[in-house]
Input
Amino acid sequence: MGKDVIVACDFSSKEDTLRFLDKFQGSRKPFVKIGMELYYAAGNDIVKEIKARGHKIFLDLKLHDIPNTVKKAMKVLSDLDVDIVNVHAAGTKEMMKAALEGLTRADGTRPLLIAVTMLTSTDQKAMEEDLLIKEPIGEVVMHYAENARDAGLDGIVCSPLEARLVHDRCGDAFLTVTPGIRFPESAGDDQKRIMSPEKAKAEGCDYIVVGRPVTQAEDPVAAYERCIREFVD
Ligand code: C5P
Output
């Protein structure tokens, strides 16, 4: 898998999601991100339906539990034939290794496995006061990234602003999957640390995750195709 644009399908029902994806008949089929809201609302049905329509899927469920439970859950997700899944790096290297084991099928194939480092909703203050982690947050993020690499994972979710540093620390082959993408002329919504698809490409991001700039666009197909032109072509 190379550079691609992943569309965050943050819808709350199967119907809304399929109505949105119907617009792409006749265009390139987007790589789709299914998050907790849609998965808990529509379950494996929506995963299978989107897969049957020929889309690649990033199932963004951010697993975090004891290693044995994560391993078994990953086996179930692997059988779903999705393309990317993720865990919290905070679950430890042992948990990440267990996740990889669970994901790996009898024939040796498996979906890509990436880690979430420190959530972007957690700032230095919350990290220090709630989690009792005193180091600078940037260092914690890089430490978690290195743990993920050492555990054998394929990459991490990070800000496009961190992609270059992650590649420097963890190697070019370690994938950076980056949300927080906006076209230069559009609003950032609740995203603060944003970057355009074109700039994300220049920064070496491997996958960009784009939600509202495509899903809420007047012409979602045109917005998606613009992302492809600026980031992939
Ligand atoms: O609509 P928008 O482009 O902001 O959507 C970005 C997607 O990436 C959402 O599904 C959001 O939950 C996810 N995400 C993020 N920031 C992170 C991790 C995930 O925006 N740090």
User: Anything to note?
Assistant: The chain has one domain: 4-231. Residues 36-52 form the longest helix (17 residues).
